[in-house]
Amino acid sequence: MPKPTLVDVGREAGVSAITVSRALRSPEKVSEALRAKVEIAVKKLGYVPNQSASTLASNKSSSIVVMVPSISNNVFTDVLGGISDALHGSRFNMQIGYTNYDSQEEERILRSFLNPTPSGVIISGLEQTDETRQMLENAGVPVVQIMDISPKPIDMIVGFSHDQAAETATQHLIDSGYKNIGFIGAQMDPRSLKRLAGFKKAISDNGELREQCIAVTNKPSNVRLGATLLDKLTSQFPECDAVFCNNDDLSVGVLFECQRRGIKVPDELGICGFNDLGISSETVPSITSVTTPLREIGRLAAAMVIGEEGAPSTPIVDLSYTISARESTKRV
Amino acid sequence: MPKPTLVDVGREAGVSAITVSRALRSPEKVSEALRAKVEIAVKKLGYVPNQSASTLASNKSSSIVVMVPSISNNVFTDVLGGISDALHGSRFNMQIGYTNYDSQEEERILRSFLNPTPSGVIISGLEQTDETRQMLENAGVPVVQIMDISPKPIDMIVGFSHDQAAETATQHLIDSGYKNIGFIGAQMDPRSLKRLAGFKKAISDNGELREQCIAVTNKPSNVRLGATLLDKLTSQFPECDAVFCNNDDLSVGVLFECQRRGIKVPDELGICGFNDLGISSETVPSITSVTTPLREIGRLAAAMVIGEEGAPSTPIVDLSYTISARESTKRV
DNA sequence: GTGAAAGCGCTAACAA
DNA sequence: TTGTTAGCGCTTTCAC
């Protein structure tokens, strides 16, 4: 028995194929009676729409395009998990593009993903090229930027302020009694630079900012790099008594390096990480981190882009963050 | 200017549309001269094939379907990364299905992914339902099972032996002088059960296996669970002097719990993990683990499924594993 | 609110 | 080896 088509469903329901199509994708354009008949016929025949035919005829696909910098960074697997959750059971599927933190690559990939026109685009960060923004506007699809926040999104945006988060975290270190606070960062993408700016602001507001308190690299982040950067930091800034790390890989690496070198945490060195990826709360001592709503960002972005009920009514959603204060900054 | 179609390219090259189609997808069926002409015309017009039309006409898509148990488990993000690498630049794209460690769910998802017929299927493990195996055979697509090894794959297979890996790791603990070795496991899927079997074999071969040396749960693995299971293990098996952990989340969690309780690693307790996910080598002390070729499994599976040059010529590829011996099992 | 006709761009099957 | 013909299943457009 071949797969039933719209024509088969129409025959079963006593209507034409096009009416079935309408009943399925824009029920409000069809009378109540017909809708019911069609629904029964669909169930009876086990009809499943053919996406290719639909896409070919309309030049619109049912994909939600998701552009993220990296597959291996747990930050984005969390976000993707949230999107996946929200799309589950809907008629949309997700198509993922990995930009490797490169706007040009992002533009290239997106160009290829924009044909046929997807049902929506979720894209990380604010730093799209002019070309990319133009393509997105021309495509006329809903676009949700994620991870960051801005008063002037391309279309919609959901995220939080990295400057503020870093500033609050740094202030937490200051409030905990640390006097000489350093910054450790890897993969210095625009959001990382904002965290650095927030750090600098908090330090400047409470005294003098010295350049030697910053140790950063553009390499991808990992645990070992935390150790390496701590070495760098303590040699250029020996009086350092606390570090704010760009992310949790680094903060964990810093803690391990302290254990190796016999540096007492939190007494001799306070540590604060970023994103709170799950291990920070388990280490000994546990590490203070900035808890960010990664999964929720994904979920909301998906809801906004498909215009689901329950989606926020405003195009700008600032989800904020919380400081999870733990042992690594609890000076006695 | 509208997007060029096969007809446009054909006109430019002075041939028919179908010839262009053939020149593009099976060059060997077309004369050398024509192929060159077509190639020039394609470049000149910037022709890009329309996937939907192709899929609709042939009922075959250019997707490689990848079925994995979980999005959040780093084991699978590594594998996916390998597949993504291998597919990059080819004409194939990947379509990912998350089964949540459930064969019925796997069957359900796969059924929906098999229409239109994909170009290939990569599927985790050996434990497909009969229905699933049947569907896969009927579909007539190349199938590569991954993560495990078996003499009788559905079609092709690339992985390693979990029993042997666990047996070797346990033997390493025995050789390191540990006498009372326990097993800690979470997410006891079939591969985990094989690791447990390998553990039991090594223990039995060297003395007597006692049931109380095993502490497992079916909950998803995480760092905290390592601590919880260590508690369970040491209360039911107080003489325990080493643990083999199902995976690295748990082994890290065990180490942290030892630090909390003042248990000296490796002297009072030896620890060995599984998969070597990157943090094991960084902890203090560093943790011995079984290094498994996750990325390589992904790369090879993709190469095999698309029949790429450079793919192994045999349908069964055992990639093996290595024991990365570190401080956590180096008893003085 | 509903339907008929005309493709979307490609490939299978057959013909030359 | 190359071309012709006839759809794939759906949506668009336009008519009623």
UniProtKB/TrEMBL annotation, chains A, B:
<dbReference type="Pfam" id="PF13377">
    <property type="entry name" value="Peripla_BP_3"/>
</dbReference>
<dbReference type="InterPro" id="IPR000843">
    <property type="entry name" value="HTH_LacI"/>
</dbReference>
<dbReference type="InterPro" id="IPR028082">
    <property type="entry name" value="Peripla_BP_I"/>
</dbReference>
<feature type="domain" description="HTH lacI-type">
    <location>
        <begin position="4"/>
        <end position="58"/>
    </location>
</feature>
<dbReference type="Pfam" id="PF00356">
    <property type="entry name" value="LacI"/>
</dbReference>
<dbReference type="InterPro" id="IPR046335">
    <property type="entry name" value="LacI/GalR-like_sensor"/>
</dbReference>
<keyword id="KW-0805">Transcription regulation</keyword>
<dbReference type="InterPro" id="IPR010982">
    <property type="entry name" value="Lambda_DNA-bd_dom_sf"/>
</dbReference>
<keyword id="KW-0804">Transcription</keyword>
<protein>
    <submittedName>
        <fullName>Transcriptional regulator, LacI family</fullName>
    </submittedName>
</protein>
<keyword id="KW-0238">DNA-binding</keyword>
